[in-house]
Amino acid sequence: MHLRGPEEQIDHSVEAAERFVEVAAGRGLDEICFTEHVYYFEQTRQLWDQRYMLDRCIHDLDRYVGAVTEAKERELPVKLGLEVDYVAGRERELADLLAPYPWDYLLGSVHYVDGFPVDQEPGLVEQLGPHEAWRRYFVWLRNAARSGLFDSLSHPDLVKHHGPRPDTEAVLLLHEETADAIEAAGVCIEVSSAGLHKPVGELYPDPPLLEACQARGVPITLASDAHAPQNVGRDLDHVVGLARAAGYETVTVFDRRQRRQEPLG
Question: What is the DSSP annotation of 177-196?
Fold first, then answer.
């Protein structure tokens, strides 16, 4: 979840968390995790070189952490997380920034590669063409897995968000190489319904990538990537169906970055 108020406006408050919890309870969800984007917080300014990233860094990370922590103290079924963009060369700075906080789990994501946006148009695919864009994206994703910073990789094939793809053989090779790297790193992979509401109109990740991860014993987390309360758990049945079709029977649950397996859906 991304902790927001009406019309996806930033609202890092306990009251906003309560609205998400109310919807989650009505949809039979046992717990949810808030994973706001790291680049919204003023404490992360040193990580970014691009003006468009710096312009977003206006919110207080301590306020966000405090709101979710207070919700937990009120015994609301929430976890504290963060969706963290991987920035090549800034791993140590990122680790130092994250260290003081009591995270339950951290999502690693790749939204920008060499300064090009992955899920915006025009972006990475338009600038480099599908073959080079996909190759470079998955290099960054594998490096994110190897960094040791993250517990799970969110929307792991985000590069398919829009635009053309490489040929099938090239994509399958990228999937296999990436599944190998994720297995070696010991991180989870996220199965998300968010792509159903993007230009691609598909779940993340593609079935062959998820199947390659399952064959290697890579655990999964589940996501609706809700940016508003009404979208909590949206299309979760499709997510569970994809996971089951790939051979998964459990989902990973985190508490202070320690994970355990629970029955799937």
Answer: HHHHHHHHHT-EEEEESGGG
